[in-house]
Structure formats: C-alpha cells, structure tokens
Amino acid sequence: MSYRFDFLALLPYWREFLWGVLLTLQISATATVSGFIIGTICAIARADGSPFIKRLVATYVEVIRNTPLLVQVFIAYFGIATLGVHVSANVAASIALTVNVGAYTCEIVRAGLQSIHRSQMEAAECLALSRTQIYWHVVIRPAIERVYPSLTSQYVLLMLASSITSQISAAELTAAANRIQSVTFRSFETYIAVGFIYLVLSFVVRAAFALFGQTVFTRRRKLGTAL
Amino acid sequence: MSPIVKLTDVHKYFGTYKVLEGVTFEVPRGGVAAIIGQSGSGKSTALRCINALEAIQGGTIDVCGHAIQDPELNRRALRCDVGMVFQSYNLFPHLTVEQNIMLAPTCVKLMRKPQARDLAHQVLAQVGLAEKAEHYPEQLSGGQQQRVAIARSLAMKPKLMLFDEVTSALDPQLTGEVLKVMEELARGGMTMILVTHEMAFARKVASQVIYMHKGTVWETGSGTMLDSPRTAELRSFVNNGL
Amino acid sequence: MTTSAFSIVHFEFLCWAALWTIGLSAIALVGGSLLGFVIALARISSNKSLRWASSLYIQLVQGTPLLVLLFLLYYGIAVFVGPTIPSIVAAGAGLTIYASGFLAEIWRGCIEAVPKSQWEAAECLALRRSQRMVHVILPQALRIATPPTVGFVVQVVKNTSLASVIGFIELAQAGKLINNSIFEPFTVFVVVAAIYFGICFPLSAWSRTLERTLNVADR
Ligand SMILES: Nc1ncnc2c1ncn2[C@@H]1O[C@H](COP(=O)(O)OP(=O)(O)O)[C@@H](O)[C@H]1O
Ligand SMILES: [Mg+2]
User: Which subunits count as partners of chain C given 3+ CB pairs below 8 Å?
Assistant: First the structure.
C-alpha cells in the first residue's frame, strides 16, 4: 500500500506525449472527414439508391457495426499487406477508422434524412428548385443540422477509439504511452497521465465541434439553441 | 363558514416575469369557485400554487389548515387533503384503471388491497365507469380517461378538488359527460376550484366566479356576474367567449 | 516457424474463447447495470453534490478510452494488490466501469423522457419521491430503456475484445494466438470477425425490433 507516485519521471518524455497527441488528432481528423463524406454518401444511397445499392450499403453498415474495431483494424492492416501493397501502420489505421466511422455516420445521417418531412420537399418543388438544389438545401443540410449533436458524440468516441490502433503499432498517443511506460517502468503514472490527456482532448474536440457548428448552422446561432 | 382555501396578496414570478400580482380570494367549505379569464392570465399558476406545485414569492395561502408559504410545509399531508385533475388526464399508462386508482390508497394510506379494490369500484361507479376497471388508459376515450382521473383523486377522499381546464381537450359530447360528473360532485357538497372556459357550466354550478386578468382578480361575484359585468374587460371577455 | 493451415482445431479454440467473450460481457453487464443504475439515480437526485459527483464520474468514464482504462486497472491492481492477480479481475472491473458510465447516461435519459406531468400527477396523489420513482416513473422508463440498452449490449460484447491487451484470453486474443502460430492473419481475423458478428447481429436486430414496437405503441 506504500506505493509512491512519481510523475516527475515522465517529464523528460513530454515531447513524445505531445507528438502522440498530434498524431492522434491527425488520425482522428482524417477519419472524421473521410468517414463523414463516405457515411453521408452511403446514407443518401441507402435512401434513394437502387435496391442492389441499398442492400450493399446495409450490409456494409451491419458488418461494421457488429464487429469490434480492434478486429477491423487487424483485418485492414494484414489484409492490405496480403494484397501486396505496403502501407504504414498509420495509413492502415486511418483507413480502418474511416471505414468504421463511415458506417456509424451513415446510420446517424440516415436518421436525420428520415426526419425531414415530405411536405418540405413538396414545398421546394413548388418553388421550381432543381432536384439537386432541393436535395442540398431542403434535405441534406437540415438533416445534418438536426443530427449534428449525435455526429459530435460519434466523432469524440472515434478520437478515443483511435487508441486501439496502438495495437498495430500505429504511432499515436497510446502507443507513445506504451513505449514510455516500458522505458520508465512507471506504468501506472503513465496511464493516469495519458487518461488525463485524452480527457482534455475529448473536451477540446467537443468544443471545436460546437464552434464549427455555430459558424456553419447560422439558424441555430440566431435562435440561440444549443448545439 | 370558515374558508377552506384563502389566498392573501399572492405574488408569483417566473424568473423576473410576474405572473401573479397580488391575488386574493377565498372559498368556503362546500363552495364551488370557477376561475375564468384569458389564456395567460395566470389561472393555472394560481391553481398550481394552491397545491404547492409552484413556490410563491409573496403573500400567504392557507389550504385546509396548511400554510403553503411555510418552508416546513408537509406536502404529503397537503396532497392527502387536495385532489387535482389536469387537462391532459395524466393517468399512468402502464397501470390499469383499477391499479391507477388503488396506487395512492395502498401506498399512502396503507390500505389493504381488497379494501382498495372495493374503494376503486366504488369511485368508478360514482363516475359511471364501473365496467372499465380492467382496462388500460389507452383503451378509453378522452372523456372516460378524464373521469378515471377524477375517480383516482376521489379515492383519496380529498376535502378540496382542483380542476384545471379538464374539458379543454375534449369534444362537446365528451365534455358533457365529464361536466355531469363534476356537477354531481358539487351537489354532493365537495369544495371545488375549477379553471374553465365553459361559461354555461360556471353560471349554473359555481357559487362564486373569479375573473382573472393580468395576474390579478379583476372581478369576482356570483354566477350572475357574467350577465352584468362591471368592468369593460370582463364584458369583452364574456361577449367574445360566448 | 512451423506454418500449418487454419483448421477445425483452431476453430474449436476460437469457439471456446468466444464463451469467454460472452462470460466477460455478462460480468460487465451485471456489474455495469448495478453500478450504472445507482449512478443514474444519483444523477437525477435532489442532492446537488450527488448530482455533481455522478456527472463527474460519467464524464471521466466517457472521456477516456476503454483501452487506457484497462491498462490503468491492470497496472493499478499490480501495484496496489499484487502482480499475480488474474487478468480477468482487471478486465471485469474495467468493463464494468465502462458499462456503468454509459448505462447511467442512457438510463438517465430514459427516466427524464417520462413526461414531467407523470411526476406531478404522482406528487398530487401524495406519493413519496421513492414511491413515485418505483410505481410510476421506473416502469415507464424501463419500456423506453429496453431498445437502447440491448443496443449497448452489442457495444459491450465488441469492447470485450480490448481485454486482449492485458492478456485475457477471449475471442480476439485467441485469434492473435492462433495467428502467431500459423501466420494467416487475414483468414484468422475474418473468422474471428464472423463469430463476433454471429453474436452481435441478432442483438442489434432485436434492439431494432424493440424500438419499432415501442414507436408503434406510442402512436
Ligand atoms: N413554468 C413556467 N415558466 C415560465 N413561465 C411560465 C411557466 N408557466 C407559466 N408561465 C407563464 O405564466 C403566464 C401564466 O400562465 P398560466 O398560469 O398557465 O395561464 P393560464 O392558465 O391562465 O392560461 C403565461 O404567460 C405563461 O407563459
Ligand atoms: Mg392554463
């Protein structure tokens, strides 16, 4: 019971922690942006595509949502290598996270699309807007605005889940922690510190999304409703 | 006769917004008070203050000997004396009609199940729904649900009943069956305060009509006051309302 | 390295490991439900410091990766209790904490989704706060809570895979072990994924069915 904490032992490694933070943010940001695009396209395809496309998207979503990210990361890492293409662990990690979060985004955006009332589209048609104009202004934008809080939570979870990619030795925050604890033998302190850093990161990411939402969805800002 | 309910200079704010500005009235035992007035004039708030669902910021309210403004108020004792029925019925959807009625007597008054069941059937008969005991609320019409809500309150044998626009969500025919139950209650000597838009009912049943306007009691009197309003506000309210 | 192909023996090993996945999920769900329920109640309690403490707990659990939480417990137990404690203790504790943090928040939402008028009606019938909770609010919240709770079970089953990082042998770890001996990662992990899918998909489908019936009933 007389364990003596020694956080000072970690201090010399602040550069590695910082580097880990940056790489974690980089991997998460990449996956967020590309996953958002893929997920939105899939959601639209699932709402308006041919029966075959709908089936295909549904399968993608179900397979991803019902298998662990850890296993997906392994399959992506070793699977890409099996194809004879050599990619770094970080690229494989970004690909796995993108595919993963794309499926979740698809489900969330789909719920948003379903919440848009038919009468809205009919009203737009009566104003002689083109089909793409209708889709963009009356369906997609409001749908995404409506599910923006769910998307935010999902992308914060993604940032935290990116720690899993340390298992294929992608260089990010948790991997940095694994390395530092093996050198300093201060495992407990290292993971306390890293847990704290993730906590701060999740607040920062949440705040960034709130800020972004405020600038993009001006109606919310004007009405003063929280995002 | 001593009053059962006595409001004296009651003030109520929501934040900085003043909803009640010195409301004063009293209702004697066995009296039927009808509160009328435009929407937003503070009728519901006044009723909710009487049942301590809202805190008041000034004045005093005495209900069956309970001082509502007292921080030490025994709310459960108050609610044993006061029954309340809402516009939206607020029956418990997961319980049958009988269970809805039996809940409070068994939990609060520790009545045994068989007695509580007898009581439930008795109050259901009183509102004309004896055969619906085993039904769930969603299987009943709005008027029937509202009568069950009344029966649920009656099972606690309250000394005072509060009704907040209990027929506003009902069509005219269903309104009639609920009003009939309320009229019988009044005739049986129950003390009642009701917020209502049914002027004919107020005129016929109420021993006392309270016209609220902008958070105050603007005009008060017997049912005949509606035929000869003294203030311009009540006159225009009565003319537009009928 | 002796390289042999993926065989029925390996598959049997995976199925056996899947039982540990299910067992660990059960531990996490039982522990997480008990703890999570208490925290959900604390979250909506009338006591300010209870509300604050439970909110802090939820933020902590939801703001750190499960992986880091598992490492923390694993090394924490080694430091404070002893290095010979089996890894199922850290894995069970970690997943219990994880599940409690998320279930508490899900259930708080469900309790608050019961209309305020139901609280008020119960209050007007002179029921105590605890009686209102037990007889009026919780039965209704339970109905609302079933679909998202079943949905969360899927998350727990998937996340037990992270127990592999502290050496607990469940499905994912079994996959790694087999891969270390035969080095056929693609085959091995696709089979592992398929087994997870076999456990999770029926649960997801069930959750969706529950949600649909709930929505129809509300109409
Ligand atoms: N919980 C509340 N918070 C803020 N304002 C409220 C609240 N309840 C009622 N009000 C306001 O108080 C005023 C009186 O409301 P109410 O008593 O319901 O009027 P009435 O029943 O006569 O229609 C209204 O302007 C209403 O908007
Ligand atoms: Mg009202």
Answer: A, B
